[in-house]
Amino acid sequence: MADISKDILQKIKKDEVRPYPKQYFLLKRSVIWTVFGLSILLGSVASAIALFQLRYAEWDLYKHLSHSLAEFVLLVIPFFWLIFLLGFTGFAYYYFRRTEQGYRYAAVWIILLSIVLSIIGGGLLYSTGLPDRLERVFQENLPFYRELQERKQKVWMSPAQGLLAGTITKVVSEQKVEIKDLYGNNWVIDIADTIWRGRLKPAEGLKIKILGKMKGQRSFVANEIRPWKGRRGQGRNRHLRLKNKR
């Protein structure tokens, strides 16, 4: 044993090994816990936006589509943000493992703890209205994100199944408007008996989604018109009927 200790001391002197100062370990510990906390925070943001998108997913559209249930789920589930959540969970797991006591816990419990904390944090952020604001920021400033969301909205371009979307180009009368759909085609929309969701009113430049039925070539009867950005604002079940506004 004495010989081993002597050999170790000689090696330390030979290699000029110097012990790390206490501040190094304090800094390392602080960095690890900070990155772990940031991973949970960013996971909470991803969770909040995923909850927001699920809350306003238009699940009732399935009956209007010819898609299979699996295809429809792919359209409405926010996989983009769920992947982010899993990614930040991985970061949280990696850095928690490097804390002083991290090695004591099984991987599955660390991962579950990270996910649960992110979901709880996401629920708190969701209650503040932050996800809605972040969604607008991302769509306005990140072209790839805007294209991703609009690609999902192309499900509305199924006029034969009673779904149509576009921008109002002209308010002809209280019974009719003209729109340009997502593919640039012009349509005449009968809105005489239409329910307008989300406190909408017919106005030029308004982007809308329409449920109804085709009446003929480029002609459509609208039973219900929704805001382009989902069904937000419908929580109180307030809507406008043009017939009642006359």
The total number of structural domains is 2
Radius of gyration: 28 Å
Strand order in the sheet with the most strands: 1-2-3-6-5
**Topology pattern, helix = H, strand = E:** HHHHHHHEEEEEEEH
The overall strand count is 7
Strand content: 15-25%
Q: Indicate the percent of residues in helices.
A: 40-55%
SSE topology:
Elements lengths: L1 H14 L6 H34 L13 H8 L2 H18 L10 H22 L1 H12 L1 H11 L9 E9 L4 E6 L4 E5 L4 E3 L9 E10 L2 E9 L11 E3 H4 L1
Parallel strand pairs: 3-6, 4-6
Antiparallel strand pairs: 1-2, 1-5, 2-3, 4-7, 5-6
Helix pairs in contact: 2-4, 2-5, 2-6, 4-5, 6-7
Structure description:
The longest helix is centred in the first third of the chain and has 34 residues, at 22-55. The chain is elongated, with a radius of gyration of 28 Å. The protein has a five-stranded mixed barrel. It contains eight helices and seven strands; from the N terminus they run αααααααβββββββα. It has 246 residues and is α+β, with helices and mostly antiparallel strands. Helix content is 50%, strand content 18%. Helix 2 packs antiparallel against helix 4, helix 2 crosses helix 6 and helix 6 crosses helix 7 (143-153). Strand 1 and strand 2 (176-181) form a beta hairpin. It folds into two domains: 2-151, no CATH class; 157-245, Nucleic acid-binding proteins (OB fold (Dihydrolipoamide Acetyltransferase, E2P), Beta Barrel). Residues 231-246 have low confidence and may be disordered.
